[in-house]
Design goal:
Blueprint: H1 2-23, E1 26-33, E2 36-41, E3 52-53, E4 56-58, H2 65-77, E5 81-86, E6 91-93, E7 96-105, E8 119-124, H3 141-148
Parallel strand pairs: 1-7
Antiparallel strand pairs: 1-2, 1-4, 2-3, 2-8, 5-7, 6-7
Bound molecules: cytidine-5'-diphosphate.
Amino acid sequence: QVRRLLSARAAAVTSAAEALVAARAVVATALVRDRSVLAAQRTRPPALAGLWELPGGRVEEGESDADAVVRECREELGTEVVVDGRLATDLRIDAGVLRVHTAHLADGGPEPRALEHSGLRWVTAAEVPGVDWVPADRAVVADLVDLLRP
Ligand code: CDP
């Protein structure tokens, strides 16, 4: 009886922990330079491979959104970015909500490189609507066009 209670308890704790991990925030970066935004081509999972995204990923324990944006841009692009603000529209993803932050390259920092993507491209306001974005990122096409317009 005690053992059954304990294992029920353990299962409840495990599923609460899984729910927390699943609900953890994800951030993406609208990295802007010269009125263009950086799009990065995904390599995984197979359903998203070849599609373009705003670089980003999961916010880790104890990190702010801005910390996560800076870390993800280091890991994925080898570059230093400065966070400026945030887009109004959040993206819906399976794991919950993804917040898009705006950023620029730190002065004199390294050029972005595709360390975890199959390609990078700078996209102008005119080009944004025609990019093959991952499904979630399509929701911010209008915000990106506004951001890049003079
Ligand atoms: O790098 P990490 O594994 O933390 O994150 P990720 O796999 O790049 O992104 C976490 C989730 O957010 C995945 O389901 C991505 O498909 C999604 N995502 C997205 O929809 N749009 C983005 N711009 C970035 C991530």
